[in-house]
C-alpha cells in the first residue's frame, strides 16, 4: 500500500519552480516555451485569497468572522484547524484512522492527539472496513466521528459499510430515529503525477450513486475549513474528499474563527456570459488557467463554477448559469464514463428550459476510461490544453 | 478504553516502554541468522547432499508438529542462496540510489533485511507453485524469474519494465508470481483463489501467500482463512512480520501479535525469517503438508526491515537507531549464511568475495540496461493497451509544446 509518503509528497506538492526552468526535457519537467501546461502558480492564482481583505470579502462568511483576523494556511493546515475546532467545541467528536495520532501521512491531524488526548484522536489498525463500520456504530450511538481513510484508493474494503450501513441507517431505523448522519469520512484523492494504480484515484462518482450520502470536495484552504466544519456538524453522513496535490501547494488567508460554508451549494467563482465551466477540486485551477488564456486569445467571457458538493448537487446554480451562457463544459479528473459530468449533462438536457437554451452539446473533459498509469498520468487527467481546446470547440460549434 | 493501545506518543521511543532485549526476546523464535549447525562433514562435491541441523529455536508451532530440525543441502545450493540474497540486496540498494537521484518517482518499498524470506521460499518451491505478495515485492519478482533490468525498468517507468512501466514498484508480475499488490491485504483472498485452482486441477502445487503484520488485521485475511480451511486448499498463508506496519509497531495495532496463531482453526508455524535455511525447511514442510491434502497452514516469518516503510519514511521515528543497528550487525541474513558457509568450509572467503563482486557487477549492468530503456511512447495504442472497452480515447494529444502535438490516424 501506501506510504507515510511524507517527504515524497512534500516534494511532489511543492512544485519546485526550478524544475521547469531546467533545460533537460525529461517527463517530469515542463519546457520553457510551453504555452498552456506551465505549472499552476498557486502564489498568484485568483482562485486563492492572497490577502486578508480578499478572504473576508466572501459573503458566505458570517458577520463576526468577516470582522475577524485571518491566517495564512495551506490545505492540510486549514483542515487541521477545522478538525481542531470541531474537537474543541463538541466533546462527541472523535478522530481516528491509520496513523492519525502521529499527524497522518499528510499532516492534517498534526498535534490533535497531543492537544485533545489519545482517547479522542487515535490510530486504528489497517482495516478500512472496520474503520468505517466502527464509525457507523459511534454515530448511531450519538457520537460525532470523523474517520480518515489514508488514501481514497483504500476505501473500497469499506464500501459495504458506507453503502449498506452509513447511507441506509436512518431509512431503516424507522421510529427509533437513529442514524449514522454524524459520521464524516475524510480521504485524500486525486493525482499527483506518479501515483500509479492505487494512489491517484478519484472515486467520488461511485458515492454519488448512493442516496443518503453527501459528497464534498473543497478547492482551497478557506473553502476546506468551512466545508469540513459543515460536514462534521451535518446530520447526514459525508464523504469529504481532499485533493491531495493541494495539501501543500494551495496556500491562502483563512479566517481564524469557526465558520461553516453551505453544503449542496455551488459557488460561481467567476462570472461570464458566453460559456460555463463546471468543475471541483484541483482541476478548477487548470480551468482557471485555460479560461484566462481563452479570454485573452478569443475575447470571450467565461463563467467558472465550483460545484463543491458533488452530491446532492446544486442544480439551480448550474442550470441558471447554462440558461444564461447556453454552453457548458464539465471538467473532472475521474474517468469520463458514468462520472459526475454524465449526471450534469443528463440533468441539463432533461430540464426543458435549459435544454432549449443550449447552443452547443454539453461537453465533458475528464480522465480517459483507463486505469491510472505510472508515467502517463499527465495524459489521462485533464490539463490546461484539453480544457482550452474544448473551450474553442464549444464556442465554434 | 483505548488508552493502553494508543497511549504511546511518537516522541517516546519503543525502548522506553519495553527493555531493548525484551522487545526482540519476547518473540520466542530466534532471529539469529547463523544458528544452524553441521551434523556431518561437508562433502567434497558441490552436488552431494549433506545434513544441516537447525537451531531448536527456529520454529514455534500452533496445533502442529514441528518440521524436522534437519535439512538437506548441497554446497552449490548454499552458494546459490548466498548469491541470491546478495543480488536482491544489491538490486534494492540500486533502487534506493535511483530513487534518491529522482529517477524513480512515486512509491518504492524496499525489502533490505528481509531477503531470507524471498530467497528461502524460492529454494523450497518449484516454478509450478504460485507466489503472491504485498507491495514489498521486488525480491520475490526477481526470485520468481523476473530479470533485474525488467524490475528496475518498471521502477523507472520504462516500456520494457516487467509491467510495461505502467505499474511501478508495487505492481510486478511473472510466471507463477501474481504480484505485488498496492492494497493492504487484498492479495490474501486472491491467493486462496490460486490455491483453489491447484486443488481443482488436481496438481500438488501450493499457493504461497504473503502479507505483512499490518495487513493481518484486514478482514479479508480472515475471510480467506475460513475459505481455505473449509475447502482444504493448498494455501501457505505467511505473515512477514517485520515488527512494524508502516510506523506502527505490531503490539500497537494487533490484539494478538502471534500471527501464526491467527488462523485459529488452521495450524500455524512461526519461523526464524532471518535464517534462509529455516525458511526453506519450513516452506518445504508446508509444501509436503499441502501436497498430502492436509489443507492450509498459517506461517509467520519473523524478520526485520532495515529501511523505512517506503522511501519517504526514514524509519527512525518509531524505533531506535540502536535497534536497527543491532539487527543489522548481529542478525543479518546474508552475514549469517556467510558465516555458516565459512565455518563449514563450504567455500573460501575469496570465493564469496568473488560471488559478491559478480552480483554487484551483474546488478550494475542490468541497471545500466534499464536506464537505457525507452519510456513508453505517448500514443493511443499504448495508453489504451489492455483496456477492454474502447471509445474514450482522444483523437489527438496535445504536447507540452506544439511540436509535441500528436494526432492519431
TrEMBL record, chain A:
Cite the Transketolase-like pyrimidine-binding domain residue spans from the record. Answer: 73-249
Q: Which reaction does it catalyse?
A: N(6)-[(R)-lipoyl]-L-lysyl-[protein] + 3-methyl-2-oxobutanoate + H(+) = N(6)-[(R)-S(8)-2-methylpropanoyldihydrolipoyl]-L-lysyl-[protein] + CO2
Is the keyword Methyltransferase in the record?
Answer: no
The superkingdom listed in its UniProt entry is Eukaryota
Required co-factors: thiamine diphosphate
Task: Tell me which SUPFAM superfamilies the record gives.
Answer: Thiamin diphosphate-binding fold (THDP-binding), TK C-terminal domain-like
Enzyme class label: oxidoreductase
User: Which EC numbers characterise this protein's activity in its record?
Assistant: 1.2.4.4
Keywords for the protein's UniProt record, in alphabetical order? Oxidoreductase
Please identify the protein, giving its name as recorded.
3-methyl-2-oxobutanoate dehydrogenase (2-methylpropanoyl-transferring)
This protein's species is Bionectria ochroleuca (Gliocladium roseum)
TrEMBL record, chain B:
Q: Give the catalytic activity.
A: N(6)-[(R)-lipoyl]-L-lysyl-[protein] + pyruvate + H(+) = N(6)-[(R)-S(8)-acetyldihydrolipoyl]-L-lysyl-[protein] + CO2
Q: Which cofactor does it need?
A: thiamine diphosphate
Key words, A-Z: Oxidoreductase, Pyruvate, Thiamine pyrophosphate
- Which Pfam family is one of this chain's hits? E1_dh
Gene3D superfamilies given in the database record? 3.40.50.970
Q: What is its EC number?
A: 1.2.4.1
Report the SUPFAM superfamilies cross-referenced here: Thiamin diphosphate-binding fold (THDP-binding)
Q: What is this protein called?
A: Pyruvate dehydrogenase E1 component subunit alpha
Q: Which organism is it from?
A: Bionectria ochroleuca
Amino acid at each position: 500500500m501506501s506510504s507515510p509518503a511524507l517527504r515524497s509528497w512534500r516534494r511532489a506538492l511543492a512544485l519546485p519552480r526550478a524544475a521547469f526552468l531546467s533545460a533537460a526535457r525529461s517527463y517530469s519537467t515542463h519546457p520553457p516555451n510551453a504555452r498552456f501546461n506551465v505549472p499552476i502558480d498557486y502564489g498568484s492564482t485568483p482562485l486563492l485569497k492572497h490577502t486578508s481583505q480578499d478572504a473576508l470579502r466572501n459573503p458566505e462568511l458570517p458577520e463576526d468572522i468577516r470582522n475577524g483576523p485571518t491566517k495564512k494556511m495551506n490545505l492540510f493546515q486549514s483542515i487541521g484547524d477545522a478538525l481542531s475546532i470541531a474537537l474543541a467545541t463538541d466533546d462527541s467528536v472523535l478522530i481516528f484512522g491509520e496513523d492519525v495520532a502521529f499527524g497522518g501521512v499528510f499532516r492534517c491531524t498534526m498535534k490533535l492527539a497531543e492537544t485533545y488526548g489519545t482517547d479522542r484522536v487515535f490510530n486504528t489498525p489497517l482495516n478500512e472496513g472496520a474503520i468505517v463500520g466502527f464509525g457507523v456504530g459511534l454515530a448511531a450511538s450519538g457520537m460525532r466521528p470523523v474517520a480518515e481513510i489514508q488514501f481514497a484508493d483504500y476505501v473500497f474494503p469499506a464500501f459495504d459499510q458506507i453503502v449498506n450501513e452509513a447511507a441506509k441507517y436512518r431509512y431503516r431505523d424507522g421510529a427509533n430515529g437513529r442514524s449514522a448522519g454524524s459520521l464524516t469520512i475524510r480521504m485524500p484523492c486525486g493525482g499527483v503525477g506518479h501515483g500509479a494504480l492505487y494512489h491517484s484515484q478519484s472515486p467520488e462518482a461511485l458515492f454519488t450513486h448512493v442516496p443518503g450520502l453527501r459528497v464534498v470536495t473543497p478547492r482551497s484552504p478557506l473553502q476546506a475549513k468551512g466545508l469540513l466544519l459543515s460536514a462534521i456538524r451535518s446530520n447526514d453522513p459525508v464523504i469529504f474528499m481532499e485533493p491531495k496535490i493541494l495539501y501543500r501547494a494551495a496556500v491562502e488567508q483563512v479566517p481564524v474563527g469557526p465558520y461553516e460554508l453551505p453544503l449542496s451549494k455551488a459557488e460561481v467563482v467567476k462570472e461570464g456570459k458566453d460559456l460555463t465551466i463546471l468543475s471541483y477540486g484541483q482541476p478548477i485551477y487548470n480551468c482557471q488557467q485555460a479560461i484566462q488564456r481563452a479570454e485573452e486569445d478569443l475575447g470571450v467571457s467565461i463563467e467558472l463554477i465550483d460545484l463543491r458538493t458533488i452530491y446532492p448537487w446544486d442544480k439551480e446554480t448550474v442550470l441558471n448559469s447554462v440558461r444564461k451562457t447556453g454552453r457548458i463544459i464539465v471538467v473532472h479528473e475521474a474517468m469520463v464514463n458514468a462520472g459526475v459530468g454524465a449526471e450534469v449533462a443528463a440533468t441539463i438536457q432533461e430540464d426543458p428550459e435549459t435544454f432549449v437554451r443550449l447552443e452547443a452539446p454539453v461537453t465533458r473533459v475528464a480522465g480517459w476510461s483507463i486505469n491510472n498509469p505510472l508515467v502517463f498520468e499527465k495524459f489521462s487527467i485533464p490539463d490546461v490544453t484539453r480544457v482550452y481546446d474544448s473551450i474553442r470547440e464549444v464556442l465554434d460549434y | 478504553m483505548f488508552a493502553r493501545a494508543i497511549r504511546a506518543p511518537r516522541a517516546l521511543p519503543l525502548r522506553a516502554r519495553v527493555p531493548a532485549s525484551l522487545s526482540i526476546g519476547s518473540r520466542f523464535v530466534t532471529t539469529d541468522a547463523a544458528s544452524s549447525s553441521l551434523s556431518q562433514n561437508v562433502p567434497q562435491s558441490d552436488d552431494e547432499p549433506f545434513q544441516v541441523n537447525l537451531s531448536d529455536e527456529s520454529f514455534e508451532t500452533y496445533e502442529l508438529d514441528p518440521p524436522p530440525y534437519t535439512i538437506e543441502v548441497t554446497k552449490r545450493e548454499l552458494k546459490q542462496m548466498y548469491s541470491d540474497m546478495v543480488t536482491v540486496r544489491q538490486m534494492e540498494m540500486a533502487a534506493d540510489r535511483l530513487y534518491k537521484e529522482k529517477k524513480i518517482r512515486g512509491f518504492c518499498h524496499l525489502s533490505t533485511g528481509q531477503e531470507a524470506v524471498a530467497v528461502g521460499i524460492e529454494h523450497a518451491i518449484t516454478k509450478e507453485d504460485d507466489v503472491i505478495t504485498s507491495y514489498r515485492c521486488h525480491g520475490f519478482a526477481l526470485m520468481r524469474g523476473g530479470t533485474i533490468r525488467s524490475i528496475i525498468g518498471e521502477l523507472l517507468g520504462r516500456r520494457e519494465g516487467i509491467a510495461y512501466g505502467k505499474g511501478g514498484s508495487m505492481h510486478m508480475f511473472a510466471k507463477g508470481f501474481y504480484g505485488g499488490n498496492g492494497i493492504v491485504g487484498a492479495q490474501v483472498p486472491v491467493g486462496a483463489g490460486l490455491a483453489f485452482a491447484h486443488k481443482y486441477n488436481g496438481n500438488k502445487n501450493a499457493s504461497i501467500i504473503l502479507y505483512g503484520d499490518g495487513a493481518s488485521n484486514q478482514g479479508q485475511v480472515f475471510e480467506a482463512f475460513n475459505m481455505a480451511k473449509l475447502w482444504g486448499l493448498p494455501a501457505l498463508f505467511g505473515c512477514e512480520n517485520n515488527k512494524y506496519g508502516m510506523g506502527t509497531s505490531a503490539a500497537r495495532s494487533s490484539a494478538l501479535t502471534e500471527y501464526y496463531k491467527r488462523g485459529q482453526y488452521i495450524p500455524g508455524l512461526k519461523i526464524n525469517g532471518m535464517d534462509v535455511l529455516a525458511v526453506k525447511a519450513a516452506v518445504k514442510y508446508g509444501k509436503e503438508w499441502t501436497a498430502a491434502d492436509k489443507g492450509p497452514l498459517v506461517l509467520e516469518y519473523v524478520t526485520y526491515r532495515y529501511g523505512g516503510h517506503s522511501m519517504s519514511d526514514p524509519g527512525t521515528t518509531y524505533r531506535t537507531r540502536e535497534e536497527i543497528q543491532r539487527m543489522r550487525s548481529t542478525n543479518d541474513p546474508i552475514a549469517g549464511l556467510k558465516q555458516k558457509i565459512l565455518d563449514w568450509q563450504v567455500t573460501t572467503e575469496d570465493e564469496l568475495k568473488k560471488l559478491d563482486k559478480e552480483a554487484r557487477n551483474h546488478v550494475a549492468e542490468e541497471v545500466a540496461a534499464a536506464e537505457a530503456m525507452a519510456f513508453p511512447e505517448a500514443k493511443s495504442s499504448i495508453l489504451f493497451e489492455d483496456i477492454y472497452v474502447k471509445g474514450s480515447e482522444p483523437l489527438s494529444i496535445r504536447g507540452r509544446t506544439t511540436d509535441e502535438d500528436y494526432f492519431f490516424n
